[in-house]
Amino acid sequence: SSSLDHTRTLASQVGGHAGVQTTEDGSLIIKPALPLEHKFYLELTTSDAFAALRPYVPRFFGTLKLEGEVDETKSNTGGGIVIKETDTKEHKDKCCFLLSLVLENLSHPFLKPNILDAKLGTVLYDEEASPDKVERMLKTARETTSLETGVRLTGFQVYDNATSQPINTPKSYGKSIKPSDLPEGIRRFFPISSAESSSGLPANLLLPILQYLREDIAEIRGALADLHFRMVGGSLLIIYEADFKKAEEGIQWVKDVEEGKIDPESDEDEDDDKDGEDAAKKQKPRSPYVVKLIDFAHTRIKPGEGPDEGVLKGIDTVLSLLDGRIKEVEALL
Ligand code: ADP
Ligand code: MN
Predict the structure, then answer these.
(1) Is the complex ipTM higher than 0.85?
(2) What is the DSSP string of 172-236?
(3) Which of 170, 203, 252, 327 has an alpha carbon 20 to 30 Å from 72's alpha carbon atom?
């Protein structure tokens, strides 16, 4: 049911370079890969180096090798993977995107996914970047929230309850704000539905989702604190359900799992069926949120060098932003 023959642009892409594709059924994404990201996912499955991160990254299903030459002036319109001209010099230098990664589409199980890409780290340049690029990235870090807080809101989408359509906040917003504006940025991604706001969840549904997300992100921090690595340009991808009914069912599902009434594993991996399964699956209660690390195009294991302090700083910022939002929501209940 997740055929790779017919792919389309991932409509819910909130950050990064254009060109992420999804399978016809939406369950997988196909992302053009730089060599280092390919290496990361191979090592994730085969070696112990990144093993601790396995629970916290999208499932990796393998690579797709594109046949033929990459013609940067044309796109392949045969219904297959579209090879687009890439927009950065860096990507052109590395050339060719001939290999793509096939990954779990984290937003697929959601009816109305609110999605935030939060870029982590204070260092935004790769150790192999040109002096030019290093200069530019130092400037970007200084002029954005990255250097001081270790995080930047790369982009997000939030559903409008009136139209049931996602509203996108582009990267220009996250790039323009100051550290003191981050709580407002987090409010925009986690709005509370009210007479004044046609987006967001009711406070009683938003609160547990914020608390669950906080717990998971604290776990991710724990794993990263023990890892000797450097991650440049990686993100936390935070997703939660914006549909009231689905969110409520999802919260109940989490409680049932916690109380041992439901085995979360037995609920998965039964999607080997025919058409119609997809719609049925979407109606089945499941987690109303997910948070994972994504984008390992510049992530390296660095034995003996300790954790990436800039990345940990960014995660700590996210945790305190969530704490702030949790307090605000609690005050309304
Ligand atoms: P880039 O190198 O272009 O920044 P990313 O890996 O950050 O690539 O992906 C770009 C965007 O694609 C993300 O901001 C997110 O919206 C979407 N995306 C990436 N990976 C996934 C995934 N596994 N599931 C769902 N969406 C994803
Ligand atoms: Mn990215």
Answers:
(1) yes
(2) HHHHH--GGGHHHHHHHHS-B-SSS-SBSB-HHHHHHHHHHHHHHHHHHHHHHHT--EEESS-EE
(3) 170
